[in-house]
Specification:
The complex is a heterodimer of chains A (169) and B (58). Chain A starts with a helix and ends with a helix. Chain A has helices at 3-22, 26-39, 44-56, 60-69, 71-76, 78-87, 91-99, 106-118, 122-134, 142-168. Chain A has 169 residues and is an all-alpha fold. In chain A, helix 2 (26-39) packs antiparallel against helix 3 and helix 9 (122-134) runs antiparallel to helix 10 (142-168). Chain B contains 2 helices and no strands. The model of chain B is unreliable at 38-58 (pLDDT under 50). Classes of the chains: A mainly alpha (169), B mainly alpha (58). The A-B interface holds A 10-12, 14-15, 18, 21, 45, 48-49, 52, 55-56, 79-80, 83, 86, 106-107, 110-111, 114, 117, 141, 144-145, 147-148, 150-151, 154-155, 158 and B 9, 12-25, 27-28, 31-33.
Chain lengths: 169, 58
């Protein structure tokens, strides 16, 4: 196969992939993306697309296996890897990863707050949410984020009142 | 006889917001038929239309 026709085929596969993923058909989208990876296993864009598909399909174990094999993208996708760890009930590993990210962006912080909540480290979770609100991210999730902060605060209160009750007894 | 019931605090509602930040790489647009130029034009057209729709109710 000439370089030109090979490139054309890859573009066609990407286009097919894109068509499916835009409709949310991630299982169908995996077929063309797997073909691309077979043809060019160093295509980082394809590898990233596949990882995102696996996450959308709730295949977190498979995503982690995939990242183990594809270490080249694992290093540049710490957010996605930590998210998979979080969803496979490994919040401590997720937290360790997130703490190692230099200059954490809003995605890292959002996930970190959720991981800390799962670990019942409510004080720290509240701190991270404060940090996120201080930098006022201009997205449409403001209300949901307020709800999450509310859950953190009420868990903190619950813990305090439990302590108080046990002291009384 | 069952032991007396005790009130338990309900588990608060908590959203998985981080999932929204899992997204396809932007470079995907460069790879598909039509390339980036056409696509970005088209996208701003579509999102402009959607924003227009949101504006209607206000």
């Amino acid at each position: 196969m000439g370089d030109n026709s090979r490139e054309k085929l890859i573009t066609a596969l990407y286009t097919e992939f894109n068509k499916h993923q835009q409709k949310g058909e991630y299982d169908r989208a995996l077929k063309p993306i797997n073909k691309i990876i077979q043809m060019a296993n160093d295509d980082k864009i394809a590898l990233k697309c596949k990882l995102v598909c696996l996450i959308y399909l709730n295949k977190f174990d498979e995503a982690l296996q995939f990242l183990k094999k594809q270490s080249a993208i694992a290093v540049c996708m710490p957010f996605e890897k930590a998210y998979c760890l979080y969803r496979t009930n490994n919040p401590q590993d997720a937290l360790n990863m997130l703490n190692d990210v230099p200059n954490p962006d809003h995605r890292i912080l959002e996930l970190k707050a959720q991981v800390l909540y799962r670990l019942e480290q409510f004080d720290e979770a509240a701190n991270v949410y404060q940090n996120i609100f201080r930098n006022a991210p201009d997205d449409e999730y403001e209300e949901e984020r307020q709800t999450n902060l509310g859950a953190v605060v009420s868990s903190l209160n619950q813990r305090e009142s439990d302590k108080f009750t046990s002291q009384l007894q | 006889i069952p032991c007396p019931m005790e009130p338990v605090a309900p588990k608060p509602l908590f959203y998985d917001l981080a999932l929204n930040y899992v997204q396809m790489p932007e470079e995907l647009q460069d790879k598909i038929d039509g390339g980036k130029k056409d696509q970005s034009k088209q996208q701003s057209g579509i999102s402009g239309f959607v924003k227009g729709l949101w504006g209607w109710g206000k």
